[in-house]
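Supplementary notes for students who missed Thursday's class. We covered one full example, reproduced here. Read the sequence, then the structure, then the short commentary at the end.
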Amino acid sequence: MSAENRLIVSGVVCNPPESRHNPAGIPLTRFTLEHRSQQVEATLPRDTYFKIVVIAAGAALKQVAVNLQRGDEVCVEGFLSRMSYREDEARMALHAQTINKQISVIET
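Structure (token representation):
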């Protein structure tokens, strides 16, 4: 079995981040990321669109995530896993390892 599980997604923050602590006391900050792009599949262009929940664990990522606002463009790198560790939970989330806010350059 391969252990590869890496995802890099850029998009727009859909909702203000919400923070809490898990039972072990680790800060968790969560927000939804919306992605839109055009990809090539079977040599044909395909419009892609999805929303994914991003979970940022730990104090360092909380410092970045809590300063995000709706409409901010970000690039998130991390891995996919379930949103929670309950057995019956099947929804996926992007568990962030890095979050980089994209700086828009306005040409004049």
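Commentary. Residues 59-65 form the longest helix (7 residues). The CA atoms of residues 11 and 35 lie 4 Å apart. If anything here is unclear, bring it to office hours.
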